[in-house]
Design brief:
The protein has 254 residues and is α/β, with parallel strands linked by helices. The protein contains ten helices and eight strands. Helix 2 crosses helix 3 and helix 2 packs across helix 5. The C terminus is likely disordered.
C-alpha cells in the first residue's frame, strides 16, 4: 500500500489557453488527479544523484553476489533495462532481500546532490486537484528528496517501488497492471488521472491504462533522444513544471 504524506477596455478576442487548460477537458466540478514521477521530473537527478545511485547499485550487487565490479555493473545495467529496476532482477534471479538491497544501493546523503526548479512547492500548489507521487525509487529515498525540496506536504500519497506489487509480484512502471492497481486503490477514474513523467515507456504504459500523459523532457533521461517530437501517447510535452503552468511556452501541446 502507498505511503501517506503529511500533509481597461476589454479586447474582443479569445484568450490563449494555458497548458493546464488545454489538458483539462473535464467538467469543472471534476478535479484532476496528478500522478508525478520523481527523478528527472521534480528534480534534476542526472546532475549528481544518478551517478551516485549507479555506484551504490553496483556496490550492492557486488556485496550481494560476491562478484567483481565489472560483473556487477553489467548485471545492474542488464536488469535495469529488462525490468525497469535492478532490484527486480536481483530478487527474481538471485533471491536477494529487496528492502536490504534498496537500502544499500541508496545509502548516501541526498541534500548536497539536489538540484531543482525554484519555487516548485508554490507551483505544485497552483495545480488544481490532488497530487500523488509514483516512483520506481525506494520510499526512504523519495521521502528524503521531497523533504529537502519542501514538497512532502504537496502529495497525498507516495507509491514507491516497495508498494508496486500486483498479485504478489513486483510490477514497477511501465506496468499497465500497476497503473490500474493504483487507480483502483486511490478511487480514481482513468480519465481524471494525469501522469507527469520524463520516461516515455512509462507514459506509454499509463496511456494503455487510460491515463492522460505529460512528458517532462529531460535530455539526460536514458533513451530521451531516440524519438523526436511528441509521440501519439503523449498529450502534452513540457520542459519543466513551470511550463506546465504556462509560465513559459510549452514545447508542444495538443
Amino acid at each position: 500500500m502507498p505511503q501517506r504524506s503529511g500533509q481597461g477596455i476589454p479586447v474582443r478576442r479569445r484568450r490563449a489557453r494555458t497548458p493546464i487548460e488545454a489538458l483539462d477537458q473535464m467538467p469543472r466540478e471534476t478535479a484532476p488527479v496528478w500522478l508525478f514521477d520523481l527523478d528527472n521530473t521534480l528534480h534534476d537527478t542526472s546532475h549528481k544523484i544518478f551517478p551516485q545511485i549507479n555506484i551504490g547499485m553496483t556496490q550492492a550487487v557486488m556485496e550481494s553476489l560476491g562478484v567483481d565490479e565489472e560483473t556487477a555493473n553489467a548485471l545492474r545495467t542488464r536488469y535495469w533495462k529488462r525490468y525497469g529496476a535492478t532490484m527486480l532482477g536481483m530478487v527474481r534471479h538471485h533471491g536477494v532481500d529487496p528492502h536490504a538491497f534498496l537500502h544499500r544501493s541508496h545509502d548516501f546523503e541526498v541534500a548536497p546532490l539536489l538540484r531543482a526548479e525554484k519555487g516548485l512547492a508554490t507551483r505544485l500548489a497552483q495545480l488544481p486537484g490532488r497530487k500523488i507521487l509514483v516512483t520506481n525509487a525506494p520510499l526512504r529515498y523519495a521521502q528524503t528528496v521531497l523533504r529537502h525540496l519542501g514538497l512532502l506536504r504537496c502529495f497525498s500519497a507516495i507509491w514507491a517501488i516497495e508498494h508496486m506489487q500486483v498479485h504478489g509480484h513486483f510490477r514497477p512502471k511501465p506496468s499497465v497492471a500497476l497503473m490500474r492497481h493504483i487507480l483502483a486503490h486511490e478511487g480514481i477514474r482513468p480519465r481524471r488521472a494525469i501522469l507527469v513523467e520524463d520516461t516515455l515507456d512509462n507514459l506509454r504504459g499509463a496511456r494503455n491504462a487510460g491515463i492522460r500523459t505529460v512528458h517532462v523532457f529531460h535530455p539526460a533521461t536514458p533513451f530521451a533522444t531516440r524519438r523526436r517530437g511528441r509521440p501519439d501517447f503523449v498529450d502534452l510535452r513540457v520542459n519543466s513544471i513551470a511550463d506546465l503552468l504556462g509560465r513559459r511556452r510549452p514545447v508542444r501541446s495538443f
